[in-house]
Design goal:
By secondary structure, this protein is mainly alpha-helical. The protein has nine helices and two strands; from the N terminus they run αααααββαααα. α5 runs parallel beside α7 (about 145-155).
Length: about 200
């Protein structure tokens, strides 16, 4: 099964709220399944974004299934909530990267043009907040993101974000799912996909 097929399978099996079908069509028409996850760090290759989203999903499922996690935080989230926050936390990266070229010496010492990813942010609305904004266009009314889902996606970067650290700390304290998603995102980014992988 390809990463795209796995993503669609998990998505359609778990995400049932109104707007999910239109959101999936939007993802299919966008570059979500071919985009990288970063320009040079984790997932900096074609398809890196969908692979990263799957990795975060599996890390989050694992983290939330640990008895100690449940004991400490009393976390018990629906399969739909887990799928939404993990699979869709980085929809802000849709149509965000472009390919450009630079000169680089090859192994023989000859200069050649090589492709690389660069950022072309056509909707400069931050990171986590942009994902919440995009998702709010599909999940609305009674099917909108819950407050905890929205905060989890908004603050999934944790303390690596640029916001006031007190605000981040308060959000992670108030919404355990935000902390769990941050842990899963960091585990996927640095241990499963790190730049040395």
């Amino acid at each position: 099964m390809t990463p795209k097929e796995e993503f669609i399978s998990i998505y359609t099996e778990n995400i049932k709220r109104g707007g999910a079908d239109k959101l999936l069509e939007y993802l299919k028409k966008s570059d979500f399944f071919t985009a990288p996850s970063s320009t040079r760090f984790h997932g900096s290759y074609e398809g890196g974004l969908v692979q990263h989203s799957l990795n975060v999903y599996h890390c989050l499922k694992d983290y939330l299934s640990r008895p100690r996690t449940k004991e400490l935080y009393g976390m018990d989230y629906s399969e739909e909530t887990i799928a939404i926050v993990a699979l869709l936390h980085d929809v802000c990266k849709i149509n965000f990267y472009t390919v450009d070229y630079r000169n680089k010496k090859n192994d023989e010492g000859v200069w050649e043009k090589v492709p690389y990813y660069t950022i072309n942010d056509t909707l400069p609305y931050g990171h986590g907040e942009k994902s919440v904004y995009i998702l709010s266009g599909f999940f609305y009314g009674d099917d909108r993101l819950t407050r905890e889902e929205a905060f989890a996606i908004r603050y999934h970067m944790g303390f690596s974000g640029i916001e006031d650290k007190n605000v981040i700390g308060k959000a992670l304290e108030m919404y355990p799912l935000a902390l769990a998603l941050n842990v899963a995102d960091m585990e996927a980014s640095y241990y499963l996909e790190g730049s040395s992988k």
